[in-house]
C-alpha cells in the first residue's frame, strides 16, 4: 500500500480559498447512509465535478443539503480526506474503486496517483486486463505501460491457458497483424509465434480460408508468402501430436436453458463472465432433456435435472 502526499496542497488550498488553515464547512453531502460536512471552495479546487455543481448555476448551487447517488461513501471519505490532509492511502484493495470514483467526481490528481499505483503493479498476468481497464477509464499512460508489458511478454501470453479469446482464430489473426506492421524485422518470428496457436481449435472455415490463401500464386504479397511458408514448413506443435495442445484455453462459461415447457425445443444461452457477453446457442430438443451435466476441463460446474 502507498500513502501519497501532495507537498504543494496546503499552499494551493489557502491561496485559492483565501481562508484560514481549516476552511469552514458550509454544505452537507449525503452519500449512501452517511452525511459529510464539506467546504464548497475546498472541494471545487480538487474536483471540476463539484466546481460545476457548486458554482455552475445549477440547482445545487443554492442548496445546503445535497444528495449524491452512485458513489461509495467510504471511497468518498478517502477523497475528502485528501482535500484536507493532502494524503491518500492507496492499496490493492481500494485502488480500482478509488480510481473509478475519482474519475466520476473528476478528482484528477487522485486518479493520476491511482494510475501510477497500477502501473507499478503491472505483470504479464494482468497486463491485458489492465490495458482494457485503462481504455475504459481514459488512463493513457497506464494503457501504454500495459501494452508495453504485453508486447514484451507476448510469447508468454500466447502460451497462457487463461488467455481469453472468443475463438482461437483470433490468436492467429493477431499474430498476422503484428507481423504485417513491420514484416522486415518481424517475419523471422512468424513460425515461433504461430506455433503457440492451438491449431486443433481453429475453426474449419478459418482453416479453409488459410488453405485457399496459401495456394494463391505470387510471392509479392507478404501475407500470402507467410501462409505458403506455413504450409510448406509448419511448426512442430502443428505436426507432432505430442507437442500440440490437446486442450482449449480455460475460462468459465455459464449455460442457461429455458423456454416454455410445452415446446419441442428449449432455448440455450451462453454467458462468458470475462467479457460479460451473452450468446444464443443452437436450441436443444426437449425429448433429450432428462438429466445432464455441464462440465469444463473435467470439472463439473453445474448439474441440472429436468422432467422428461
TrEMBL record:
UniProt domain BTB: residue ranges: 25-92
Keywords: Kelch repeat, Repeat
Protein name in UniProt: BTB domain-containing protein
